[in-house]
Amino acid sequence: KTTIEQIKAKWEKIVAKISETNHSITFILKMCNLEKMDNGLLYIVVPYSLHKEKIEEAKNKRALEDALLATFQENIGLACIVQSANPATDKTKEQEINSIATEFGGEVVG
Questions:
Q1: What would the pLDDT profile of 64-108 be if each residue is shown by its tens digit?
Q2: Dihedrals φ, ψ of 84, to 5°?
Q3: Distance CA 6, CA 33 (A)
Q4: Residues 14 and 71: beta-carbon distance below 8 Å
Q5: What's the DSSP call for residue 110?
Q6: Which helix H or strand E contains 65, and what residues bound it?
Q7: What's this model's pTM, rounded to 2 decimal places?
Q8: Is 62 helix (H, G, I), strand (E, B) or coil?
Q9: Residue 31 contacts by C-beta under 8 Å, 6 or more apart in sequence?
């Protein structure tokens, strides 16, 4: 059974192989996080639902699964999860923006 560590170790090569024939998901695969392997499924975390939809398109999912099969000689399925940026960080940025706006005598609208 393939482990998440083995996949992480070869991820760059897998992405490079996919980029030879399928450029549309290369960028997404480079920025995703490989979460875990569980029951033959590779859990991939992406920041936006648009990325999840792109990876889950039939041709893209098949390209990734085929590359995993070619690399590990094992059928590995995909589970894609959307996990947005840290809400606490977003809150801090919002406070900073409000603070700057106040300093200049304005306010943030919207």
A1: 999 999 999 999 999 999 987 655 555 566 666 666 667 666 666
A2: -70, 170
A3: 14
A4: yes
A5: -
A6: helix 58-72
A7: 0.75
A8: helix
A9: 46, 47
